[in-house]
Write a structure and sequence with these properties.
The protein is an all-alpha fold and 108 residues long. 50% of the residues lie in helices and 0% in strands. It has 4 helices and no strands. It is flat, with a radius of gyration of 35 Å.
Length: 108
Amino acid sequence: MADYESAGGSLKFKGGGGVTKKKKKKSDSSKVKAALEQAKESTPPPSKPIRVVEKTAAELKFEEVQRKRQEEKVLKAATKSHKERVAELNKKLEELTEHYDIPKVGPG
């Protein structure tokens, strides 16, 4: 029991260094405003021309078909009332096999 009596307190990490918190830098608002104004005034022209990527005809057609399908899906969902959705779910559940039921085996 003597071995365990001296144990206690917090754990010690190797290196002996404790937790050090980073100091927050204080910024002067007037310096920040001046820097923003200076940056706005001296914006250099873009060195590289902006290249517009055009989509192929197949990509445009694909996006159009996707958009139409999405619209149809939304319209179909919006036309059903809550009562109809519940009835449809109940019908679907009735048609499912009752796989997890305990089968009746043997007499009685």
